[in-house]
Each structure stands twice: as C-alpha cells, then as structure tokens.
Amino acid sequence: MGPTPPAKAPHDLNLFFALSLFLLSACVVALQVALTRILTYVSYHHFSYLVISIALTGFGVSGTVLTFAYKRIKRDFPKWLFIFSFLFTISIPACLSLSNSIPIDIQYLLYSKGQMALLLFYTVLLFLPFFFAALAIESFLIFFKARRHDVYGINLFGTGAGGLMAILLMFWLPLDRLAGAIGGIAYLSQLLLFIPLKNTAKEPGLRACPLLLIGLVVPVWFALFPPSLHVDAYKAASYFKRLEAQGDARKILSVSGPRGQIDIYDSERIHQTMFAGLNLKALPPAQLAILMNGGYGGTVFKIDSADKASVMDFTPQSIPYRLLEKPKVLLLGEAGGANVWLAKRFGAASVTVVNENPQLNGIMHRELAHLNGTIYTQPGVRTVTMAPHLFLETDRDTYDLIQIVSAEGMSAGVSELSSLHEGYLLTTETVARAYEILTPKGMIAITRGIQYPPRDNIKLFALFASALKHQPVADAGKHLFQARNYLAVTTLISKEAAASGFIARYKGVCKALLMDTEYYDGIHCRDSNKVNIAKGREGGTSSTYCLAAREMVAGEDAGIVKNWLYNVSPPSNDRPYFYSYVKWARLGELIKAFGPHWYRQIETGYIVLVAMFFLISLLALVFILLPLFFLKADLKKEKSKPAVFLYFSSIGLAFLFIEMVFTQKFVQLMGDPLYSVSTVIMALLVFAGLGSILQSKVNLSPVTKIRISAGFIFLNLALYLMHLDAFLPLAYPLGTASRFLICIALIAPVSFFMGWMFPLGLQLLETHSALLIPWALGINGFSSVCATVLAMMLSISFGFRKVLILALGLYLLAALVSRHFYVRMDTD
Length: 828
Description:
This protein is of the alpha/beta class.
C-alpha cells in the first residue's frame, strides 16, 4: 500500500487557480514555438526538434524530482506552487539571453569536447524554464487530486491556446522581444496564483511580495532592452553582417513574422550567376540578396528590362526554354524573380509565380518594386500565394513548362541541414500531378547544384522516373533527360516521348551551353563526361550520373543505385523527406572513404537527431530507474510498478507519435507548416482536454472507460489509415477556412478519446499507489521526450502510416495493461 493521501487541500480549483494554470500551460507551448523560430534563425531548422525534446525532458525530470521530494512538498503545496511559478517567470528571459551568448560551433561538435560541453550547458539553460513550469503543472495535478481530470483538461486547453498565442506575438513583435513578452504573460499566471494564496498561514502575502516584484521586473527589463541575437557564423546572415560592419553591404529591409525573418541586403559583393556554365559571356547585373531565417533565400536582379538579364542565357535553366517556343510557364517557389527574367528573355507567353510566403510576395510587389523592375507586375506575369504542391492539386490550367525553382540551389549537406524538412513538392505523387497538367509537348525541369559523391541529382532522376510509373507511359526512358555543367545538373521530364529529331535538338542545346548530356533515350555512357569531367566508377570514364540513370530506366534492382553510399530512393507523400540521404548500412564506408571529414558528407540534422535520441533515451532510463533504486524501501510494496511503467510509457509514446505525424501530414491539407502546426496542436490538445473533463461524467469504472477510449482510438486511426490519403485531395480546392475546419473535424474524434487515458491512469493510481503518481508523471514525460525524436526517425525511415500503426498498437497495449495494472494494485 502507498502512503496515506494528504489531507484535503485548503483551496478549491477556483477561477484564479484555473486561469493561472491555463496561462502557465499556454506559456510553455508559446515558449516552445518562439524558441523554435528563434533557433531556426540563429542556428538551423533541426534545432526545433531539440526544443521539443528539451521541453518534454523538463516534464520528465520534474516527475523524478517530485518523486524524491513528494513528502516534503505535499506539506505545503501552495507555497511550492508559487515558487515554481516565480522561477518559471524569471527563467524565460534570463536563460534565453544567457544561452544566446554561448559560442557554439556546430561544425566542430563531433571533434571538440569543448563544443560538446558548451552544447550541454546550452541545453541546460533552455531546459530550466520548462523544468520549473513542469514542476508547477505537476504540482497542480497533485494538489487538486479530487479535480485532477479538470486540471488535466485546463492544462491541455492552455497548451492548445499557447501555439496561437505565440503566432499572434510573432505578428506583433520581432524575434528578440518574444522572450520578454512570454515572461510577462507568465507573470500574470504568477499574479493570479498569488491572489488565492496570499492569506494562507504558511505563506503570508508580504513574504511573497519580493518575488512578485522580481517576477515583474525581469521580463519587463528584457522586453524593453532585448539582447542581440547572435547568428551562427556559417549562415548567410553572419556573412552579410560582417560585410555590413566593414561597409561592403547595406541592409535595406527587415521583416519578421510567424513564417520567419526576411532580410534584404544590397552589396556589390553579390555576384550570383545562377549556375551559368563555362561559356559565360555576360557579367551578372547588380543584385540584392534575400535572406530567409538567416539563410540565403534568393536573388533579386536590380534591372528594369529583360535585356539586362543576359547572364540567364548561359544557365542550365535555359535548356527547356531553348526546346520550347513561347512557353506558358509555371514557376514553383520562385523568390527573387531571376527566373521570371529568364522566361521573359525567351519570350514566354505567360508566367505564373507560386510562392507560399505572403510576406515575401508583398515585399516583391511593394517595397522592392522600384528595384526589381516591377517584374512581378509586368504584363503576362501572375503571382499566387499558395503552397506549390497545393496549387498543383487545385489549378485547372495547363502549362508548357513547370520549373520547380524551390529545389534549385547548392546540394543538401552540412550547410543546409534540410534532412528533417518534410516537403510535399518533391514527392512521387506531386510530380505525377505536375505531369498531368502539362500540355502535350510540355516539360518539367529542376536544376540543382552538384556534389561528390553525387546524391541529390541521382535522387531527382529517380523521383522523375517513379512519377512516370503513375502515368500511362509505355517507356519512361523516352521521357527523361539529364545534363550537367561543372556547377549543376538539369533534370527534365517531357510529356511527349522523345523522337530522334527532338534528341538531336537536345544534344545541340547542351553542346551550345558546354554541358555534358547525362541521359537521353539511347545514350551510351561512354559519350558522356567529355566537357565537365566528373569522377565515375573506379577505373572507368563514364560519369556516375549516366550509369545510375540507365540502371533506373532499365528497372535494375542492383548496381549503383542499390549499393550507393546514400539513400536515393524516391520520396512519397507517406515519406516526404527528399533531403534525407542517410543509409546506415553504408555509414562505415563513408567513414572509411572520407576519414575525419565523413561528418561533412552526411546531413548534420539527421546525425544530431540520432545522437539526441540515444542521449535522451539514456537519460530517460536513468531518471525513471533512479526512484526505484533510491526509494526501494518506500516502493518495495508497490508491486504494480511494471504495469505503471508499461501504461504511462505507452500512452506517452502514442500521444506524441500521433501529434508529430499529424503535424507533418496535415501540411498536405493546410498548405503551410505554420498553419499545420498551429491547427493540429490546438485541435489535438483542446479536444483531448475536453475529453479529459467529460470522461469524469461517464459513470463507469476506470478500466472500462480505458477500454472504451482505446476502442474509439483504434476505430479512428484505422479509418485514417484506410481513407485519409484518398480524402485529403478532395478538400484541396476549398478555401483556407474550410480546410482549417476539416482539419479540426478529422483530429477532434481521436484526440477526444486520447484525452481519457492519462487522467484515468492517475485515477487508478490514486486509489492504492499514490506514491507512484510523480513517478508515473516522469515516465509519461520521458516517454514523450523519446517519442518526439523517435517519431521523426521512424517517419523518415518507414513512413507516416507505420508510425500511426505503432501508435495504435501502443494504445491497445495500454488498454490491456490497465486491467492487470488495476487488479495487481487492488489485490496487494
């Protein structure tokens, strides 16, 4: 038997407590979203997963701390609630400011113990606010045990609202002021908590006044005097700041919003030639640089007519224009307008530009219009603000040329850290849809920088070949083309099967541009690799690109592609990770081939993700098992420990698996990661909170209610697995508001019953094993931490469907364990 439950709390869960908990929970998620946006700007995208894991680690460790300190804290919960709330309030701006001053160099993480130590210190600073918040929230759960289902529901309501709160703050405030603003809202939570506690005997109001004063001063100070954000030295923003400091660049515009930070720089040092080849005979025009979240996002030509964009004539992107006559052009993901000038130079009949960022489109139409030659408002040019993949699904027009501009750029690698980005434009299904809206002689084109060993462009060819398998095409090889200069590779799909005359024209165009033809129907690879010599197989003269392309067209399942160092299999909507190239079976070969520099040949984002998973898993085991070891005397009578472990770890893993998959999957429907994240988190947590509250009204035993909830979760997920992929495209033509409501309607049923499982498990524990409640909270928190990273790894490796199947199995396991869990406790 566990210890005697504490006496009834001197306070009811009144309005002040409820509002305090709501704001506290909202601040936790708002802080996560804000940190994700800040770290994406100052560092790289993959740090966003570090934020989620750190936040959930705070909840896991707090459960362990409460397990050790349970007897002491329960004597005066009101005082500790207030202290934890105060520490959360002041730690938000203080810890974020300190962490931003740590000189972490991500390029040397695997080589320098000092850098690893700095990363650890950095992680601890980000961990502290979430740790203090978790202590407060979990103290609410323990303090108001009779209303635990309501506490859990309010916590989820606040968590769901926190994402929206962060987005609203980012509309109004720049990145450096977010921490102070969130700290100010946390102070309101602290103040609301003080009101009902000020007259308690153990915490007189006057003794709390200094904490209230400090709690107010700290966030206000950081809001009024925010620290400067120090951008990673290897990002473009740092380079341009250095140019600006020495007088060689000038920032002419900076815009901040929920989608990120946009900076526009003017400098004579910008000389982008857009992959122009060896026959370049024209100087590039004066340019502006577009920085998106600190990274290079596009080039703006400072010209007023197409005559001044002659540099584009020598680019690989000009190949399809030389093969088509006055094409009707669709540019997917165009940012700065350089490819619009290219289309204009070759007499395009019309140009449709699709970009999902309304801030960038607005800047190009307004603030930069006088510098970019009003390129986006010229006759025949149309601009659409929409996710490119969603535009392809909803547009009913046809095009002679579809250029996937967002895939242009240098190769993925340590400089981009793109491997964790889900993207529905470069998938088999989306490219197949683009093929369907081509005119009979139309083409799809992608130009991407080269790298050694090659991977991006081999994968692009595999993607195009896979897309053709979804079409009534007799011979895919007759529709595919690939050519290369010394900087980039252009890959093409032709709607019309290539005839000898067309192939002759294609070869002539490549020759004129001093490019090597890497693939066309009937090519002999010995004829490739003549101008821009690239390393091929050992002892051979043919390029790897040509050999790989021939294998893929022939449908061979062995050779270069299967045994390549990288994963070059085509992505799908179920695994939309084009930039993930890790092939673990070949990691040893990479290390052997590149020695200490192997780290630069693989995506840092994925490496950090895997390292994070093993580190967190180790911490999870230690902190879950520690209470069992040190509290052996207190817990030795608690024979339900194995069942508690299985139950709370299963629901913790399953809940986050579903949340992570839905967040990425519903980008398809919402068309924007920002909309997807905010919609999914809000719907999932609000309806889970509603389920937590309303399940208490059902007059059945906890085990029966757990079975009911698991059954409904099973039915909902089974329906999603069978029909969701077919249903989503039906909603694409609808407006944003309608798609938002459909997203909520799809998430609400399953999330409502997901909200039952956690409070019902705590209710079972409360009866006979109350001492295990903090330990169970720790197990749930740490399993959630592991789930955040594990869900990403499993989605990249196996796809969303299999992760959802695993989540379904975990909920069923929890339901089965609950019966044994209950009986063991009831009979001890």
